[in-house]
Amino acid sequence: MAAVAMSPARAVPPEGAASTSASASASVSASASASASGSSSENPADWGPQGRVLPPSMDATNSCVTCHATLTDQKLRAPAKEFVTSVHRDDRIGCAGCHHGDPRDPTVGAHKSEGFLPHPTHAEVPGVCGSCHSDAGFMRHLNSRLPVGQAALYNLSLHGKLTAAGDENAPACADCHGKHDILGPSSPKSPVNRANVSTLCGGCHGDGKRMAKYGLRTDQASKWEKSVHGQAFKRGNPNAPTCTGCHGAHAATPPEASSVGRACGRCHEEELAYFDMGPHSKGFRKRGLAECVACHSNHDVQPASSLMVGTTPDATCMKCHSKDEKPRKIADEIAGLLRGARGRAAEARAFVARAREEGLHVAGASFALDQIATAELKLRGVVHTLDPARLEGPVAAVDKAVAEARKLVDDAAQTRRVERRGYYVSLGIACVLFASLALKSLQLDRRRRGRS
Amino acid sequence: MNAEQPRKRVREGWLSDRLGWGGISTALAKHRAPRRGFVFYLGGITLFLLLVQVLSGVLLVLYYKPDSTNAHASVERIVGEIPYGDLIRGVHVWASDFFVACLVAHLFTIVIRRSYKPPHELTWLSGLVSLVIGIGMAFTGAILPWSQKAYAQARVGSEIAHNIPLIGGWMHRLLRGGQEVTSNTLSNAYGFHVAVLPATVTLLVGLHLFFLSRKPAPVPVSEQVVDEEPGAQGEADAAKAPAAPVDDDDTIPLYPDFLYRQAVAWVGVLVAVLTLAIFADRPLGEAADPRLSSTGAQPPWYFLPFHQIIRSSPRELLGIDGAKFIVGATCFLGALVVALPFLDRKGSKLMAWAGWIVLFVLFLLATSALS
Lengths: 452, 371
Known about the structure:
The complex is a heterodimer of chains A (452) and B (371).
Chain A: H1 17-37, H2 63-68, H3 74-82, H4 96-99, H5 125-133, H6 136-142, H7 150-156, H8 158-164, H9 173-177, H10 197-205, H11 208-212, H12 220-226, H13 228-234, H14 243-247, H15 260-265, H16 269-277, H17 279-287, H18 291-296, H19 318-321, H20 325-357, H21 365-382, H22 388-451
Helix pairs in contact in A: 1-5, 5-7, 7-8, 10-12, 12-13, 16-21, 20-21, 20-22, 21-22
Chain B: H1 4-19, H2 21-30, E1 32-34, H3 42-61, H4 71-80, H5 85-113, H6 121-143, H7 148-162, H8 168-176, H9 183-214, H10 235-240, E2 251-253, H11 254-279, H12 304-312, E3 316-317, E4 320-321, H13 322-338, H14 340-343, H15 350-370
Antiparallel strand pairs in B: 1-2, 3-4
């Protein structure tokens, strides 16, 4: 988690992110002017989009790396070594892309140019990165697939706001992406690769000391790992959300009670739509309850079960409605419909599985099982309306799919029975033929012996 | 009896008018065949099994799709969805096993009875080539379901073929359709299984029967072939033709006695094949996945003893690669078997050892298959 650790040697933070960005932009401009006065900038081909002057080409030499790689001071040598694998190791970016200076100068004079930025402070980092990553023209020139809104989103995020306020605990760009050895997010080694995101976020959010200041819990990552989302992620489900799936990446902000449903609804769109039709939507909003989280929890969300609904002591409904007569009646009614349908669906699945185990080839069984699953999914969504009347349609759909699956198995079994009868008849005919021929042969034998 | 006679006359008259059946049956009746011994029916049973495979195979070809993507699914469909497809496939698979077993048994009985001796060289050679092609048909057929087992069998079988002296590399490429077992292997196997090999084996079996008709197999007591029209066999044969048929205790007329018995054997085998096809399921297995390991893969049962010997052989034998040595030695033995009619001459001591050699080979095959 080196990429997450905050550098203890950071300079005193500037007063604000805006000024940081401004200073970074100013330094880039200064560098641009300086470079523009050089001979290389006279060639229009060297000019980037929107008038940005690209750093001098390092095809032939990058004196920053050449020189720093030979230094004995580990702190000064390491960046040159790390930079070898960096995604920024590009003629158009190089060391000067962030630190400025003149990489063509093989002496310490390279540091003397205006705008040279040897150690960007924690608060300066978003400005330095954003100077390129917010420039649509320049980014399109570099890599048209890259987005350009990261810095703006970051500034809106809680992390960005805290960084701008001078809080060095809050992560800036380099704390997640790395510094000199930045890799593209598709690289499995990148800390921001999807596979590493929960470790990355958990590195800070699981640190009690660091989080104490903000009064935040530290068990989110461990809870997520055990949750239905974490388990699905572990199984390789590409749709399973990690931290950024709900909280966002650059705009990472904890969803508020009123917006939790929107976060969940990005994937569970249908459930959210049905939830909005139900009585809980208004009620939760009125009482400030977090929509989906109130019943399903957040980081440790468990697989939804029909046992959540009902009037049993463990049922989720009973957390709030243990003494309310009308909701109890509705919960019972919904539980009955839901459990009945899901039970019949489970039986049908087992029925098909048993038939397959017995060697019965049920044509269309996979499609029938998919139909059951689709109907169940719909039913699970409609439950969020908490209206038993609305459940009747989906329950009927489940029952229809179940009946179709059972019919397929029954038809296959019947076909097999008929076929088997045909097999036995064929075998019987063969046996009769065998016996007749054997008798005829014996008869011939007897006749021949009689003659002799 | 009175009712039977006119019916028989009508039947024979009808057939005689159209096929000249009376002449055929009279000619057949003059040939004599051994009265005792099941081994004399093996050749006919093998031919019958070939016919069963051709008929069931034609039905399977109607639904089989010979490409690696669809092959397994098409066999699943044949077994699961096509009416009686399960039975047809079962009959085809079991008949294939019976076919190879009968071919091998037929070979052994010929060797033990020394029926290959002159003037039966051509019958012997055509039979031997038919045996090799028959095994080839069974092997290529085993690849067609493109299951994991079929894939492994293709690998192991082609690997064994790679060790054949001189033509091993060519055989390996031919069987695999390249260097590796791929969809080309399946295409090649299909082409050979449904076209090249059946056509060749039909021709060879035809020749085998033709040679047999010209020089019938020796029967235990005496050559009891009679031909009242010597011109049919040529002057030379006519001169050697035996006298009138002898209805002794060791021989019976080819028609109707022997052919009825042969028909009993055919239908008996059909009953056995049907019973196994109905009651002994031959699982298709999972579809081939080249990413899965083929460790422990075994070839079809008729290659199993051979495979086990190769597996347990030392890495090197007399300075030659162990597998190549075993396959080479087998090929040498095969060449000796081919040359048997020419080696087993009067005064030759070879056949004094033949019985022991056959017993030793049987023992080796049995112990290897069980190991």
